[in-house]
Amino acid sequence: MSNAPTFEPIDATLGAVVTNVDLNQVDDGTWGHIHAAFLKYGVLVFPGQHLDDDAQQAFAYRFGDRMEGRASGRITNQRKDGTLATKQDEAFRLQRGNEGWHIDSTYMPLAAKAGMLSALKVPPAGGQTEFADMRAAWDALDAAKQKQLEGLSAYHSLYHSQRKIGFVHNTDQRYGFHTQGAPLRPMTKRHPETGRMAIYAGRHAYEIPGMEAEESERFIDDLMAWACQPPRIYSHQWQVGDLAVWDNRCIMHRAALYDTSHPRVLRSSRVSGDPATELAPTFADPLADDFEPETGAQAAG
């Protein structure tokens, strides 16, 4: 097989389908082509790879270090015994949260660089993963709106985003429900490798300093509703064996609705961001039980 994969651009501002490659055998030459396409397209879809856990983790390592506490796992509506979760199960409530547009791990001091999913079980209809191009959204803003956004930041909290859709979670030091505080992140991001600007917000963002809480919520909701529209979105209909990877620094994603009487199981890998560009100061999160700032973090007075 040639070391040059084939990249077929998706009919959107983001994304390409990659063929002529076996992700079990990625040499340095093949990786060079994949990495360049990853930066260009933001989302890469690899049909029919059928990787096992170890092979997926090996491929994820190509993108960088694993995310501590969330290196890999299952995004699923099945319990460990194989039965289907219900709204009484916390895992079910977290899956419902994934139906909102978001960037992974912005509620942690160190956000993710890249996300990766592969399909193990899929429902007969629905359950797509949808992606939205925040680079193209930034480019589509007028100069006045760009200038406004460049002056704004927002806090990020998984407690907040889950409570907003009706689910209250306890602080138990699981990933996301921590006592490290709410990161304060700029609402724009310059990509550390390409230099392109992007909108940086999503469902975990709240309370823009300088705005009242309700005004801030409306501002973020309206911005996301506008940004996540064609031609800036792609919806991937999963087939068992597919793998998708996206650049978490400039791409948002969400899960589409499906009939939860059917199983949906995706294997997830999350790649840690660079502390130089993805680490944010944290402030007291009123929805967490306590706040234990890490080195360099701050507590709001």
Can you put this structure into words, describing what you see?
The chain has one domain (6-283): 4-Layer Sandwich (Double-stranded beta-helix). The strands form four sheets. It has a seven-stranded mixed sheet, with helices on both faces. Strands 11-7-8-16 form a four-stranded antiparallel sheet. The model is unreliable at 295-301 (pLDDT under 50). Strand 1 and strand 2 (16-19) form a beta hairpin. It contains eight helices and 16 strands. By secondary structure, the chain is of the alpha+beta class.
Helical proportion, percent range: 10-25%
Estimated share of beta-strand residues = 15-25%
Oligomer: single chain
Q: Could you say what the CATH topology is called?
A: Double-stranded beta-helix
CATH class identity: Alpha Beta
Number of strands: 16
Number of domains: 1
Short description:
The chain is an alpha+beta fold and 301 residues long. It contains eight helices and 16 strands. The radius of gyration is 19 Å and the shape is globular.
Write the layout of secondary structure elements.
Layout: E1 6-9, E2 16-19, H1 28-41, E3 43-46, H2 53-61, E4 72-76, H3 90-97, E5 112-121, E6 129-133, H4 134-140, H5 143-150, E7 153-156, H6 158-164, E8 182-186, E9 188-190, E10 197-199, E11 205-206, H7 213-227, E12 233-236, E13 243-247, E14 251-255, E15 265-272, H8 275-278, E16 282-283
Parallel strand pairs: 2-3
Antiparallel strand pairs: 1-2, 3-13, 4-15, 5-13, 5-15, 6-12, 6-14, 7-8, 7-11, 8-16, 9-10
